[in-house]
Design a protein that fits this description.
Elements: H1 9-21, H2 24-62, E1 66-71, H3 86-91, E2 96-105, E3 110-111, E4 125-129, H4 133-137, E5 141-144, E6 156-159, H5 161-167, E7 175-178, E8 181-189, E9 201-204, H6 206-213, E10 221-226, H7 231-242, E11 250-253, H8 255-298, H9 300-308, H10 313-350, H11 358-384, H12 388-393
Parallel strand pairs: 4-9, 6-8
Antiparallel strand pairs: 1-10, 1-11, 2-4, 2-10, 3-7, 5-8, 6-9, 7-8
Helix pairs in contact: 1-10, 2-8, 2-10, 2-11, 8-10, 8-11, 10-11
């Protein structure tokens, strides 16, 4: 009575592992192809999710209830102006909690000192700022202090983050030349996420601007905050409140909408990069298939001997598919570790929270196993079809 030949799973794993161990260099190179594809996919997804976590944390800190009011265009397409009383009118709207304004001081260049070429303005602008501007936009002081009723009446200035960098100023107490008048820098801002236009501004007090430059504080931008549940209602009322005579010449926007749009763009870009990573993964799978085909050709005698000793065709198929699965699994694990490392280094360097959903690793390794099984199936079938006599004499 012939006993049916059987193969236990631990023997299958041992066979697959021993087959790969006999060709370490080729195995490493093939696994590297899989690893690069997986690493690329995990790094791209990790950077996207980490960046999104940082943005969500910023939203949580800054809030999404900030609206900006600025002048639009008139019916002739020319730049309109907001009334001087616009900020005060907006502040009277029910539900409004904070209002602050900027007023651009035109034709007032800023230089580090009088030795700078007048044509080298550095793209900086001067604006007056109300005392509650920093609180309203959620800005932070990097060093020094903010304008108040006393300092705003004298030649004192606060620099946005980019303005300080372009002027080469790192500490308060330095003097800059604004409109031909030296001003003392009393503070430098951190980059303002919800009002990035402040980064390239040199801010001075309204009283100082009126005294030195005869500047009337016509608002160029008004920032408004209200309770979250009132944002939509207040948004509808802002144009009429800011310019009752010409509400159509008022533009209202929410800065967080721009950030959300940027986030959506980043996610679309992430999808593109994940697609490229999938192509790399596919190329890695082809490398696995190539490795397994060559392995079948090189191990014909081994296959013939196993068949002669009682191994069935199913045993041979299982053996080679297992080798392909182990090879892909090793590549998937290595790629996951590399992708995690790349994401961690980038997140730490940029001060982000490292955030990669665990399901990403599960999906990545699962994808490698599927590709490995597909890539190993044809070589396995080819090996199983070899007659024992031909395999032993080939």
């Amino acid at each position: 009575m012939n006993e049916r030949s059987s193969l236990r799973w631990r023997d299958v794993v041992a066979l697959g592992y021993s087959g790969l161990r006999s060709r370490p260099t080729r195995v490493i190179l093939s696994a590297l192809g899989i690893a690069i594809g997986i690493a690329a996919m995990i790094a791209v997804v990790g950077l996207s999710t980490s960046g999104q976590a940082r943005l969500n944390a910023e939203f949580e800190r800054l809030g999404t209830n900030l609206l900006t009011v600025s002048a639009g265009k008139d019916i002739a397409g020319k730049e309109a102006e907001l009334p001087q009383t616009a900020a005060a009118s907006i502040k009277r709207l029910p539900g409004v909690t904070d209002v602050a304004q900027l007023s651009t001081v035109k034709d007032t260049p800023v230089y580090r000192n009088e030795h700078i070429d007048p044509a080298n303005t550095g793209g900086l602008s001067v604006a007056t700022a109300s005392e509650d501007l920093l609180q309203t936009v959620g800005g932070r002081i990097r060093s020094g202090g903010w304008l108040n009723e006393a300092s705003g009446a004298y030649p004192a200035a606060v620099l946005g983050a980019d303005a300080a960098q372009r002027l080469g100023i790192t500490t308060p107490g330095t003097q800059v030349l604004i409109g031909g008048e030296y001003h003392t820098v009393i503070g430098i801002l951190e980059p303002v996420v919800l009002a990035p236009e402040l980064d390239s501004l040199v801010l001075i007090g309204p009283q100082n601007a009126r005294t030195l430059f005869d500047h009337e504080a016509i608002p160029s931008t008004i920032f408004e905050r209200s309770a979250d549940e009132n944002v939509d209602r207040v948004r509808d009322l802002l144009p009429s409140a800011a310019n009752p005579e010409n509400p159509g010449q008022v533009a209202v926007s929410r800065p967080s909408d721009a950030l959300a749009a940027k986030q959506a763009t980043d996610q679309a870009f992430t999808g593109l990069l994940v697609g490229l990573g999938s192509v790399a993964l596919l190329v890695g799978g082809i490398g696995v298939a190539n490795t397994m085909i060559i392995s079948v050709l090189e191990r014909r005698r081994e296959i013939g001997l196993r068949r002669a000793l009682g191994a069935t065709r199913a045993h041979i198929r299982v053996q080679f598919v297992t080798e392909a699965l182990i090879l892909s699994f090793l590549g998937g694990v290595a790629g996951s570790v590399i992708g995690l490392g790349v994401t961690a280094v980038f997140a730490v360097a940029n001060g982000w929270l490292l955030s990669i959903p665990p399901v990403v690793f599960v999906a990545a390794i699962g994808a490698t196993l599927v590709i490995g099984a597909i890539a190993g199936l044809y070589p396995a079938i080819r090996a199983a079809r070899l007659p024992p006599t031909i395999a032993l004499t080939g």
